[in-house]
Specification:
Radius of gyration: 19 Å
CATH architecture of the largest domain: 3-Layer(aba) Sandwich
Largest sheet: 6 strands, parallel
Strand content: 15-25%
Order of helices and strands: EHEHEHEHHHEHEHEEEEHEH
Helix content: 25-40%
Number of strands: 11
Structural class: alpha/beta
Shape: globular
CATH topology of the largest domain: Rossmann fold
Number of domains: 2
Bound molecules: NADP nicotinamide-adenine-dinucleotide phosphate
CATH superfamily of the largest domain: NAD(P)-binding Rossmann-like Domain
Length: 278
């Protein structure tokens, strides 16, 4: 029987524990989120993050900039936040306006406050098998979900579709660090389904419907990171849930799978960075 990997349920459990933990902390954690531009999805994500933080007793500020913001304005703000003792965690919401060099902006965040673990320092630690200050939120959420359901990683063949710095690359590396055998696929991969058919664990982080019927062997663990509006305006994941859930051993729904775990990880990371800087 297929088991649904319930991200909302685990998020709620994590939030219950965090609420108690934060209430007992002498320093109230503070998260600063920089939002540049007017991407409607980004606005929703950022407001959700703020609401969740406040529910847990975490301070949260959103710093808004118009899409005409300059790189220097963003760099100056990040420097100010880096030096602000009342701020423990900094997140730059992606995507940034096209004229901004996102690598330069992310790397301006001091690694000790880099709540998404995306700076060169923290990703370098991850890729060299050392401990970063924190792990990137979405990959961390996926690993917490696998762990919660007792899904073994060691020795398994994990196929990751997508190679972004935000999700694909770090999740592949985290699985490798846990002794999975990892194959990374992307838009130039040939014969994708020949590869996905050999997966024990499949992680899809694309943003298009790329995983359908007959692409997986029976009992595969399926993690669907993708979330987008389909041609009818409905929320969709990368995986054809209807057909794939018939043969998968475990599968995440969209919504309700990886999304809530990303927020849970963001809150866990904020608290972790606050504890580390005491
Ligand atoms: P991204 O930066 O656009 O990366 C997409 C990746 O998919 C790229 O590596 C691309 O390959 C690959 N790709 C595109 N078309 C493909 C195809 N036909 N077959 C195989 N691979 C293909 O996206 P992202 O930031 O990683 O996000 C991916 C999805 O996850 C999006 O839907 C996003 O909204 C969602 N997401 C969800 C959460 C959550 O919390 N639920 C968090 C983050 C992201 P190339 O490198 O060759 O271009």
């Amino acid at each position: 029987m297929t088991v649904i990997l319930d991200g909302k349920k685990l998020r709620d459990k994590i939030f219950e524990d965090l609420k108690v933990k934060v209430a007992n902390m002498s320093v109230k954690p503070s998260l600063a989120v920089i939002l540049a531009g007017d991407d409607p999805s980004s606005k929703i994500y950022v407001n959700n993050k703020k609401k969740c933080a406040e529910k847990l007793g975490i301070n949260s500020i959103i710093i808004n900039y118009p899409s005409t913001v300059t790189e220097n304005e963003l760099l100056e703000k990040i420097q100010e936040l880096n030096n602000d003792k009342n701020i423990n965690a900094i997140l730059v919401q992606l995507p940034l306006p096209v004229h901004i060099d996102k690598f330069k902006i992310i790397d301006a965040i001091t690694p000790e406050k880099d709540v998404d673990g995306l700076t060169t320092y923290n990703s370098g630690k991850l890729f060299s098998g050392e401990k970063p200050y924190v792990y990137p939120c979405t990959p961390k959420g996926i690993l917490l979900l696998l762990d919660e359901y007792g899904i073994e990683i060691e020795g398994k063949h994990a196929v990751v579709i997508g190679r972004s710095n935000l999700v694909g690359k770090p999740v592949a590396q985290m699985l490798l660090n846990k002794n999975a055998t990892v194959t990374q696929c992307h838009s130039k991969t040939k014969n994708l389904s020949d590869i996905t058919k050999t997966a024990d664990i499949l992680i899809s982080a694309v943003g298009k419907k790329v995983v359908g019927e007959n692409m997986l062997k029976s009992n595969c663990v399926v993690i669907d990171v993708g979330i987008f509006r389909d041609e009818n305006g409905n929320l969709s994941g990368d995986v054809d849930f209807e057909t794939v859930s018939k043969t998968a051993s475990y599968i995440t729904p969209v919504p309700g799978g990886v999304g809530p775990m990303t927020i849970a990880s963001l809150m866990l990371n904020t608290v972790k960075l606050t504890e580390a800087c005491r």
